[in-house]
Write a structure and sequence with these properties.
The protein is mainly α and 172 residues long. The protein has two domains: 33 residues; 123 residues, Ferritin, core subunit, four-helix bundle (Ferritin). 59% of the residues lie in helices and 7% in strands. A three-stranded antiparallel sheet has the order 2-1-3, with no helix packed on it. Helix 1 packs antiparallel against helix 2, helix 1 runs antiparallel to helix 3 and helix 3 runs antiparallel to helix 4. Bound molecules: fe (ii) ion (2 copies). The site of one fe (ii) ion has 8 residues, from loops. The site of one fe (ii) ion (FE2) has 7 residues, from helix 1, helix 2 and helix 4.
Length: 172
């Protein structure tokens, strides 16, 4: 029997018999997927100056990475590469939407990032971007005393690490 599930990281709902292993929208791992009626999802968070600064940086990182991935999805010279970058672009755009909600902004800003034609170069760029994002999210999690903010940063460390695995597998 199908149920209604909800990701507590991005807040998006999902219909299925079982919770997905990863949120199809933001990539959060299964422990963050709850039955919708009991899922606790909060975007109205009181931010310290430090949390706000980190959330603002996180929004910039996610917009930049989403823009790069959508460019790579269009430009890269490999059919499977296009699909990978499209999937990653959608996930990073969802991450940008999380920070937009936390920062209570009316919309997500636009990015102007470029990408390459060569799939391998895009994979290398992806790898560098994900490594930077992970290091930043780890630091941001350690700097926050807010449970919700830490929960989001911790989940994003796991998600971006999954992305790192995908580029590493292809660069081998
Ligand atoms: Fe999610
Ligand atoms: Fe992300």
């Amino acid at each position: 029997m199908v149920k209604l599930w909800r990701c507590v990281i991005c807040g998006d709902p999902y219909v299925g018999e079982n919770p997905p292993q990863n949120c199809p929208f933001c990539g959060a791992h299964i422990q963050y997927i709850k039955e919708a009626k009991t899922a606790e999802v909060e975007f109205n968070v009181e931010l310290t100056a430090k949390d706000r600064a980190n959330a603002e940086h996180a929004l910039k990182v996610e917009v930049s990475n989403a823009t790069f991935y959508f460019c790579a999805a269009d430009e890269t010279d490999d059919a499977e590469g296009k699909l990978l970058f499209k999937a990653l672009g959608k996930i990073e755009a969802e991450h940008a939407a999380i920070w937009r909600k936390i920062l209570r902004l009316p919309s997500v800003p636009k990015g102007d990032d470029k990408c390459y034609k060569e799939n391998r170069k895009n994979l290398e760029e992806s790898h560098a971007r994900e490594e930077r994002a992970i290091a930043f999210y780890r630091k941001a999690a350690s700097e926050s005393d807010n449970m919700r903010i830490r929960q989001i940063f911790d989940a994003l460390v796991e998600i971006e690490s999954d992305h790192l695995f995908l580029s590493e597998e292809r660069l081998r």
